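Reopening this ticket.

The earlier resolution said the output was attached, but the attachment link was broken on my side. Pasting everything inline this time so it's all in one place.
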Amino acid sequence: MPFNVEDILRLLCHVSDQQKMRAAVKHSARGALVAGAGAFLGGLMGGPPGLAVGGAVGGLVGAWMTSGQFKPIPQIIMELPPVQQKTLCDSVYAIIRNLDWTDATHLIMLVGGNAALQQKVAAALISFVTQELQAEIQYGD
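Inline output:
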């Protein structure tokens, strides 16, 4: 039986919004590279004191570069290419295929009324984001 991808996408946006899920691709290697480069340049220019100052400044710049890169999961879901959206929806449909819904609002109500089902849908979304998108998930504000 074919299903409406838009309904499932709205469900996923609702579930991730309720849990205040945000995600970011990990940029720790880039931050470490900047910190190391700062220490190296500081050491070249100022010897041992320059090494300490360069490492500290490089570390701060590296931390600044990698912070604040989290985006709300609903935004990420809606920006996915159609092929990835379909892949995500297929995995969620396998969980909710026994439900009989008329539209997205009805589907959200059905899943929201069943804690176990809601948890399975959230787990499928988390799995997709961490494995397919290789992103880190953060909860809360």
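Reporter confirms the inline version is readable. The first helix runs from residue 5 to 18. The longest strand covers residues 21-25.
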